[in-house]
Design goal:
- The structure is a single chain.
- By secondary structure, the protein is mainly alpha-helical.
- It has 2 domains: 85 residues, Multidrug efflux transporter AcrB TolC docking domain, DN and DC subdomains, CATH 3.30.2090.10; 173 residues, Multidrug efflux transporter AcrB transmembrane domain (Multidrug efflux transporter AcrB transmembrane fold).
- The strands form 4 sheets. Strands 1-6 form a two-stranded antiparallel ribbon.
- The radius of gyration is 37 Å and the shape is elongated.
- The termini are far apart.
Amino acid sequence: MHPRLDIAAELGVSVESIGQTIRIATLGDLPQNGAKFSLIDRQIPIRVSLIESARRDLTTLENLPVPTASGASVPLKTVADLSFGQGPSAVRRYNQSRRLFLEADESPGIELGTATKKIMELPALKKLPEGVHLIEKGDTEFMNELFQNFLLAIGAGVLMVLAVLVLLFARVFQPITILSALPLSLGGAVLALLLTNRPFSLPVVIGILMLMGIVAKNSILLVDFAIEEMRAGKPRLEAILQAGHKRARPIVMTTVAMVAGMLPVALGWGGDSDFRSPMAIAVIGGLITSTMLTLVIVPAVFTLFDDVERWMAPKAGKLLANQAVPRPNRAEPIV
């Protein structure tokens, strides 16, 4: 049934009256509105509706009287178009709200993220009616949960690495210098994926987790050597230059070995290249950019935090000394 809203408005017929008329004729009135047959211990509701043969006759239904606002009545076919069809057998709900479930499969060669982005750009989804909400389920829900857990794992891993480095170096600021190399690797991984037109998927997440461990190790080699040289009495600038000169070889060797090992996977040699190739591309891009920038950015950050440490060390020492000195007890007069 499709109401003719313009004609119904002219005749003073509401959509509620149209729905009530067809409901009473086919299903009967609501139990709370109908009459009841009283027995000794209970009441039996009386449902009144058209007989089965009349409910199947479209002409009978079209001629049902619908009340108007003035008290008159008009045939149902005047204010609505009737036809036989099939409706849902059950009303499904999600969080106590009615739901409509739409499911689709990706076309060959289309990634889930790309398909989801195109679906979200549809005009119907950008302007949803009031009371209608979009809830992602299935693979899209799992992918969103994966990325949230990935960010949680990255944050927890960085905090654990920072805690271990603070204990090993017995310093607070220089471990932050080591972690400054991590964003350099992320930029390279994203750039490599963009250049090769690869999506950000589960293999890429695994590759970034592995990449961060390698980049942190290279930064530790550089910072640890500079700190040891400064403890040996060398000036800071000379210690940094020596660290860059002597630790550049193992850092470059690690990068070359990893790139060479990941190159066949990135080129798609072997089985299941669609899964492993994005991971290898992300690792290669992150290693290349982090290796080129670590020898420049990390020494600069090291110098900055070393100046901060030298400025804060005397102030922190005085503060701790003042708190450690016990205050003399005042002698109380004896009465």
